[in-house]
Amino acid sequence: MNFFNLFDEIETKDPEGYEELNNRRDLLRKFTGKAGKIALTALPFAVGSLFQKAYAGAGPSTTTVLGILNYALTLEYLEQEFYYTGLQEPHLIPTGAEYAVFNTIRTHEKEHVAFLQTTIKSLGGTPVNSPKFDYSAGSGSGNGPLADVFTNYETFLAVAQVLEDTGVRAYKGQAPALVQGGPLLTAALDIHSVEARHASAIRQLRYDRAFATVKPWITLGDPGISSAFNSNYGGEQNTIQAGSQIVDINGFNIDDEAASEAFDEPLSSTRVLALVKPFLAQ
Amino acid sequence: MEQSRLPGPLGRAGQFMVAPASRRKFIRYAGISGLAATVLAGCVKAVSNFKGDGKGPTNSVALPSGDVGILNFAYALEQLEAAFYTIVIADPYENIPSLELSRLTDIRDHEIAHREFFKTVLGTAAIQELSFNFTTVDFSSRDSVLATAKTFEDVGVSAYNGAGSLLVSPTYLGLAGKIVSVEARHAAYLRNLITPGSFADMTVVNGNGLDLDRTPLQVLTLAQPFITETIDGSALPHA
Description:
The structure holds two protein chains of two kinds.
Chain A: H1 3-13, H2 24-30, H3 34-42, H4 48-56, H5 62-88, H6 97-122, H7 153-174, H8 182-208, H9 230-233, E1 240-241, E2 244-245, H10 256-261, H11 269-276
Antiparallel strand pairs in A: 1-2
Helix pairs in contact in A: 1-5, 2-4, 3-6, 5-6, 5-7, 6-8, 7-8
Chain B: H1 21-30, E1 46-50, E2 57-62, H2 66-90, H3 98-122, H4 142-163, H5 170-194, H6 216-223, E3 230-232
Parallel strand pairs in B: 2-3
Antiparallel strand pairs in B: 1-2
């Protein structure tokens, strides 16, 4: 599957439209033929309840699921190769504890890639190939605004934070489309919270390097980096949830910073893909 | 002297920081939370049972079925976390570094925000305010406080991860998603405070790079020892 076809598919299909009709028969067919039986044994987690949900008419269609999984896979490729490249650079990441942090994170991203590829195949889909990336954000020129990303540790840390925070937002943005998705939804949520752990750990490293405004959580949509990343954080300043103002809620002294930090905000695939675009070497 | 250990002048939720020393000691030794007396609310059953085992009556709180049940389950967990951090910040452990106090105060405020958010969203369908038993926690000990906090956050993450697939409403699922990643940020922070580099170690992340998920009943089993009332989760949705 061509990566840019995926873009088109996502943009036209809009996976956030969870009102999209559930295609029960589609999924049912996948598990009744011979191919389906093979796929069942290859699945990395129990698919039984997903099948039952589909039979009962609830949950996302296979088409929706595969679109979201390939979207997630693309973002995992982006993260995995970023850390792999950074860890290969001899003088970038300080040896010892900080190197270990990034090694842990890179291992998880690699595991996410493998998990998503296996899951996509198990559902009868085709995993997208990894695009070529340009981490300078130069769309392939290699000379974008982040040209020193693999020579300047502070730039590397900043990009790492943005990738993780945005990854959290991207997974969160797809959760509603996977509602009643059984083990598939649970797996997506399990990845989502791991990305949030990563984001927290990287933010702690950035605080330690004298970025005093950076906390493990996101305060008022402030990237704590440079305004170049404002759009990655747009909306995070929100303090109204389900129509309720969280600031001073029910008379408790919750200020606007805490109110914004207490809830992370989702991003649509359209916005995520626009943010990712400069990182793609075309 | 004890007053000088309070964060000054008052933290962001200062209304909880005015407990007199005697009450704080009571909190520490008797393990009773400083929260208001229980209030029965809405359509939730809260019955007084006499066990007949000589231990006297025990309140039981039944979580309802459906999405409202899952939201109340989350509300109960947020009550637990908020009550815990409220005590931690009201009388912090000795020599707490200012950065640690600041971060833990943030976490307390996030948990209060979550608790009050669920209370507001649920309205008359909310369960009562619970009371808590923290007798196993030594609030004067950094190790005890951080270990408990880490457990609460990791369990909280696994609870949201496990409950997500039981929700029918995509809106509620989206709201739960907004909260769970913040709990994961807390967990990673606390874990690194205790053991640097343990923010996502093998005790919480498996070989597929997936975080833990637990069913509501598994979570309630872990949370029950800290809750005075008996939480009945038998009506909650399940896979």
